[in-house]
Design goal:
Chain lengths: 218, 218, 218, 218
DNA sequence: TATGAATGAGATTTCATTCAT
DNA sequence: GATGAATGAAATCTCATTCAT
């Protein structure tokens, strides 16, 4: 769908990769993605990644400085793709409820398609200051979008909000952790999965009602 | 045969502790609490805890089997106290908006007063299946409370919700992660703290508007 | 049966014990004996002994310097009693086959009644040079008795043996390890116990035939 | 895909080792063997083994899970070799006394050449149920051979034995512990070593006389 | 004497990273 | 580039022994 990022032909040290090297690097990234999702970031060892990728342990260091660097790469790709998806959509046009729903749908599907990255960076954000900052940056984008929406609604006199930024933080927290719970943790105590439609509708409901202080149309 | 010294106390695990032992155990718990909050659960080593508590490394094992056992104890106390706080309040009486606000206030102050436990168990839930389950249990309480509220509102014909449990999950996720972000992570990219009032008002706003699909009174 | 050894009223440092102290010391010895037999010497911790004895950990050191000292005491009592039992019997009188049988019977019953000491000292002899020497001393008694018997038989012209001491060593090894296997290890792969009679008869058979180079009478 | 380097070897556990790895593994096994014999199994630490082998501590875990695994490997090799040595010899042919002598000679030389394994597994059998079972298995082979011999002698009407299996157990105990005492413990209180010939002759004497109830020929 | 908490040396095990082949 | 063995620092946990009460 999206073209390979320019970074893919170029490892950290700036040198170019041969085709063979390129394949190895991709295999390692794919293995890491898989393991981060299934075992968690902290519980994944370098040796797990190379084994899963069918490569020798030492080969890992040909392409990455350490596990953080892998996540850094994955997080970058993740952020870029989420931004792409938002950019492709005109959130200012259309019926408000539809716009909100579209935003939630993009968020949900991005998280679903990148659950490994979501799991890893969410977890890493709790272990490591660097990734805490990184994660805040990624979160900020959606949060600002929401805050802008709240302000626009207020400007239109449809609802008031004494603190749009904090409300946006709360709604962003809801989106993030709701996705984490259902896509990675495996749901709540009494229910382990939901359909895409229920997920998106629920996220939409909370966002729409909070921003507009009114029920959804129909 | 000989009577227990007056100084003996009965901690959770059923064994008797002398006053001296009781103090050591408390010192270790306090140290763990402090470190879990400041360095995070995973980054805290047993040796850090004993050092902070001014005890020898080996003394840790007089009181706990391992680091998990410390968190288990803290989590238990946390859960018990949050439940106590909720039990003390009659959430069914009074004006709805006030009830919601009260619930949010309890949640926020519980998390604030137990930010160490919140941080630790949140983190541990991502590293360890056991704590993931534990955390789900703790979360379930507030979630069910919210779901009940949504159903009551629907029964009163004030608003509709096609899926109260999932909405409650979303709102619970908001509460949890909002508290985590502001009380432990140190806020968002462009703002590092908020007042209790702003926090509670914001949480209340999201909850109230989502449940009632209407603006707050006044 | 046998009177309390003089050592029982006197701990290692030469001081006398009060009645209370005497009871504690006995409780610890009994506990050690029990644990040495069931868990083995090496696998028994000081804390296990005091717990089994219903005493506080620290009390152990009131009576013994360490675990070795307990075994030393038990071994001493064991050696003394085995020697007593042999001394009570006149091995030179009577029909030869009966004498051999009597010797084996004493050996077997001593080991059976002191299986804890046997287990402990056998094990300790393999871990610790001091007990290896101690065990050799204990073994030497029976071995010399056997060697004397072989020489007497040779002197009587009933059989020859080029190396009575080594043969006695082999027969002593048989006695020791046969007792260990059946009384402590719980028998062989396909049979877990034998009657006293079969045990004694078998030991007798090997000894008698080896010494006399002839079948037992009848 | 790429062919295995010519230097790769196939050790017991199924993984492939490079020549270098093979050498390290052998060095560790040799070091363990040496230390088990001189210091005993229980007194040998993993660090002792790696130091003796001139390897880093961590390297041990490249080849073995723990100390038990090393002994398991040594025990396996030991058992296999003893069985080989017996298999190579036709114990049913020849003059009975020579057959018995041959069996004892094999036993003695096997134990002498594998005194490290003998010491270690003997000791471990007293500390650990797993090795107790293992050791019983290894012992069972010789014991059954002896029991068969006793039955054959009885069938030929040369001697009687009311309980061939228990007699075989006693004779097996003699062989095992006699070898242990003279090859590992360093002999008896008054004599520290014996020649191979005296050892084998003595073992033979006890076995032959017990089984045949008669003096050896000549 | 009795108690049990305190101590810390020592042993095991893990794993990120380096490096020789 | 690829390989996998080598390394050793760090962390966990145990337990004999001491000691204050």
């Amino acid at each position: 769908m999206s073209p390979a990022p320019a970074s893919e032909m170029q490892p950290a040290d700036g040198t170019l990769l041969t085709a063979r090297g390129f394949r190895s690097r991709e295999a390692l990234l794919a293995a890491a993605r898989h393991l981060f999702r299934t075992k968690g970031y902290a519980n994944t060892k370098i040796a797990d990644i190379t084994e899963e990728a069918g490569r020798a342990l030492g080969s890992f260091y040909t392409y990455f400085d350490n596990k953080e660097a892998v996540l850094e790469q994955l997080a970058e790709d993740f952020k870029a793709e989420v931004e792409d998806r938002f950019a492709e959509t005109d959130l200012n046009a259309g019926e408000p409820h539809e716009v909100v729903r579209e935003l939630c749908a993009i968020y949900w599907s991005s998280c679903r398609d990148h659950s490994a990255e979501l799991a890893a960076i969410f977890q890493a954000s709790m272990l490591d200051d660097h990734f805490a900052r990184r994660w805040r940056e990624i979160r900020a984008d959606a949060r600002n979008r929401i805050a802008d929406g709240i302000r626009a609604v207020a400007a239109a006199g449809l609802a008031t909000d004494p603190d749009p930024d904090v409300t946006a933080s709360a709604l962003g927290s809801m989106l993030d952790y709701f996705c984490y719970v259902w896509l990675i943790e495996g749901g709540e105590a009494d229910r382990s999965s939901i359909s895409d439609d229920v997920a998106v509708s629920t996220m939409t409901r909370v966002l729409y009602r909070t921003v507009f202080a009114a029920p959804e149309p129909n």
